[in-house]
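From the shared-data thread, chain only:
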Amino acid sequence: MVGIRTRCIVSFVVALAGCGAPIDAPELEAESEGTFRGADPGASFVPGAIDVTAPPEVPDDAEVVLADVPPPPLYGGTLTLSADRRRALAARPRADRVHVVDVLGFRRDAVATLDLPSGSQPWRSVAVADGWVLSLRDHGVARVRFTASSRLELAWLVTVPGAVRGVDVDPVAGEVWVATAGGELASLALADGAALTTHVLVPDLRDVVVGEDGDVFVSRFRSTEVLRVRDGVIAQRALFPAGLDGRAPRVAWRMRRDGEGRLVMLRQLHLQALASSAEPRPPSSGYSRRVTSGGTRGPTVARPQVIRFDDALDFLGEEPRVSATAFAVDMATGTRGDAIALAVPGDATVLVLDDTGTHSSPALNQTGSRLGERGLISSVAFRSEDDVVYQTAGEPRVASPSGSIRVRLGSSFAFDAGFVFFHEGHGTSGVACASCHPDGSDDGHVWTFPDGRSRRTQPLGGGILGSEPFHWDGSEPDMTHIVAANMTLMGAPHVSPAVVDAVGRWMDALPPDPPAAVADEALARAGGVVFRDAGCTGCHDGARLSDGESHELAEGTLSVLRQTPSLLGVGLREGLMSDGCMPSVDAFGDAECADRHHAVTHLSEADLEALRAFLRTL
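Structure, as tokens:
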């Protein structure tokens, strides 16, 4: 029988230990020579293209280290100004390290640095009077203080049951609010991190924003739904409309307040149908990439959109689409008015939008070396009403588009070709792999392919090498073929075997989505018995909960072959099954969908409820 990935919904524990203890994670920065995860590091650049298998040129005083541990995906939202707007906290999930930098431009190195326990992955933060409160992705929350002697110290650190995502502070009540991917919304005491409350809501929570009246607003990552929570109960749920061209809203990268107190969300809009691309282009030793500061591109499968709504969750009208890019991971709001800045990794670009949503100040990340083009801008913040600073995740630094600020966060640059390839924009579409696989997982979207059939984006975590063939129908025999197919779809040239190897190795190291929160563990254990007795382990077994085989299923009037998907993290997903016919595990057993995928409608409602609880733990 497959074991249950259990989680405790219990009180918080000081220090990284116990129920929320970190899993194995990258060691600090990988700053020693390691195994190169791509081609020969001496490979030459192709004129007019960038070969991601070759480390970029670097300044004389910097060092390129070839990463021997794959870095985590690009999460965005790692740069936060201090309360007095003179400094910023730059979090580095890859290195388990945070830095304080001077955003007034007086220092070229970090003012202070703090190392956190291995596996912490510092991420979102919010400014408080003497420092910041910081979320440790998957593991916990910390409060860091910037002292009068310009030191950064740890005031407290607690583990949180569940995979931590969003964080915000209610300074009046002295509370820290934390949302987890599994669906918990918890509060802590700002003074010492003591646990106050824990509520189980719905899975896939992302950002938290504390309202002026004490209500808490929480976004959901894949669906872009916004929840109003009052006294630990969901008082209102809001799904905001699709784009003008019928694109479906997916992937809420960031939700925060603007200068006038309104809620603002950066999300993506996804096409429903995919068109056939032109004939595949011949392979090259690298791949082409356009860097643009404005204008429009050809059709894209996903593009970012900024939307606003008020505390009543009334939609304030659709903002114009951001046409110059297809992938943005972070958003900053100005101190006044409607100014918005977007961090665009694939174009190494910061886009500043005016109150109409158009590009008022596109700013290329120009550094004078190829290192800047590997910068992969991961976060952005306004240091004044009309000036921004940004953080990069390739070469770790904080800079301004004007060049007045350029602070390098450490003396080495750990380069991973697969990480770069996954996050940079490709071809005429500008789409990155991460556009449809945010956080290295999936966007929850169901696409209509050129053959007319619906297929859901597949999650990547949990190890994909060895699970070939790929795609729901097993039509792509190996990594070379699936990368080529996706490059064709994006209108990009095919890539060399070295690039394919690099991206395959990087994706193979991605962790699976965490389990959803389960309030009744006894019910989940009973569901494990149902899972075994119903014969589910015949296909869903092993480390990935998949046999890696194709099975014949009914899809409409047709009989089709479908690959067994991994069930790891299935409790967080929506639109389950290959065609997305099942809304979530809560609907597992629905006759119309289940009968053509799984013969489970003979089970009693009690058994089905237990089975659903078990699936949330996977």
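The two ends are 12 Å apart (CA to CA).
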